[in-house]
């Protein structure tokens, strides 16, 4: 891991694979550090001949943090940090992979920094603007679970923070169920290396969603990966997104939740992502449903 220093922000990045290989930048969802793109997932992609970069967004991990409830940046700052990272690494153009809010950032860059984007892969994301029509709301259980989640009384109690982090992710599980052991391992890593978890779990929600980006203006090849059991953005969100982006491909994944693809679906997701980066996964596969066992 390295820390990239800019005028007013420090961003932590981690690299996997040969720097001469096609570059892939992974962008996490709101409140998530790079830890949710696990080293194992990054190494699988690197073994396929890709140069993989993951990073801590502002207020997560080892990157710059603001006081809880007082983010000193905007959604545009979050959306343009990937360009700063590419510049610092000497990468002219990259394949962008974004989960949820990270997918919104990818859409923004696909329109406003199109010359830096080779391809887009949008996972469990939703149209960041334009006219997608009426889209279904999150499942009621998500809101109920969020409302019932107790706060953290002492943010210096790392065990309590890890427990809170795990329980905060539980409502987003798909039909495959919640892998508590795996989520606890990721949360423990994240909490152990983060500067301020209270800021991490608070500040992104105060700035996200302010920039309207019409996906129909995206010109880069796009792969939309979406689960049929995402409780936050039901499948119709992914279908709408794929329908708005010209010539986009939709890969439906069975049983995944609102999450970075877990190991049980790597046999479906990884080949699709790698082929997309190589230009081999095109519109002929649109609408494919995966059935990982």
Strand and helix map with partners:
Blueprint: E1 2-5, E2 10-16, E3 23-27, H1 39-47, E4 51-55, H2 75-89, E5 94-99, H3 101-112, E6 117-123, H4 140-148, H5 158-169, H6 180-193, H7 197-200, H8 204-207, E7 222-227, H9 235-244, E8 249-253, H10 266-278, E9 288-290
Parallel strand pairs: 3-4, 3-5, 5-6, 6-7, 7-8, 8-9
Antiparallel strand pairs: 1-2, 2-4
Helix pairs in contact: 2-3, 5-6
Domain AB hydrolase-1: 22-260
Protein name: Pimeloyl-ACP methyl ester carboxylesterase
GO molecular function: triacylglycerol lipase activity
Structure, described:
The protein is α/β, with parallel strands linked by helices and 293 residues long. It has one domain (2-137, 194-290): 3-Layer(aba) Sandwich (Rossmann fold). Helix content is 35%, strand content 16%. The chain has ten helices and nine strands. It has a nine-stranded mixed beta sheet with strand order 1-2-4-3-5-6-7-8-9, with helices on both faces. Helix 2 crosses helix 3 and helix 5 packs across helix 6 (180-193). The radius of gyration is 18 Å and the shape is globular. The chain starts with a strand and ends with a strand. Residues 283-293 have low confidence and may be disordered. InterPro entries: AB_hydrolase, AB_hydrolase_1, AB_hydrolase_fold. Residues 22-260 form the AB hydrolase-1 domain. One of its GO terms (molecular function) is triacylglycerol lipase activity.
């Amino acid at each position: 891991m390295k820390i990239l220093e800019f005028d007013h922000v420090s961003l932590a990045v981690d690299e996997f694979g040969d720097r001469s290989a096609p570059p892939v930048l992974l962008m996490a969802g709101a409140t998530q550090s790079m830890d949710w793109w696990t080293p194992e997932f990054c190494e699988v992609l690197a073994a396929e001949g890709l140069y993989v970069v993951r990073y801590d967004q502002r207020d997560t991990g080892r990157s710059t943090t603001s006081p809880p409830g007082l983010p000193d940046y905007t959604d545009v700052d979050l959306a343009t940090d990937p360009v700063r990272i590419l510049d610092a690494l000497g990468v002219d153009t990259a394949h962008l992979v974004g989960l949820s809010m990270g997918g919104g950032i990818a859409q923004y860059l696909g329109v406003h920094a199109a010359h830096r984007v080779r391809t887009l892969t949008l996972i469990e994301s939703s149209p960041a603007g334009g006219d997608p029509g009426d889209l279904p709301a999150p499942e009621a259980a998500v809101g109920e679970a969020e409302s019932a989640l107790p706060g953290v009384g002492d943010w210096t109690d790392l065990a309590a923070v890890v427990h809170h982090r795990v329980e905060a992710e539980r409502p987003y599980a798909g039909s495959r169920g919640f892998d508590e052991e795996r989520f606890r391992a990721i949360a423990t890593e994240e909490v152990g290396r983060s500067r301020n978890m209270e800021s991490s779990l608070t500040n992104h929600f105060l700035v996200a969603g302010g920039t309207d980006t019409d996906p129909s203006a995206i010109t880069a090849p796009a792969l939309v990966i979406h689960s049929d059991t995402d409780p936050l953005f039901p499948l119709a969100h992914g279908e709408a997104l794929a329908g708005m982006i010209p010539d986009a491909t939709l890969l439906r994944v069975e049983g995944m939740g609102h999450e970075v693809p877990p190991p049980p679906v790597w046999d479906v997701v990884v080949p699709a992502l790698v082929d997309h980066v190589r230009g081999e996964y095109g519109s002929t596969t649109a609408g494919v449903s995966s059935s990982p066992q």
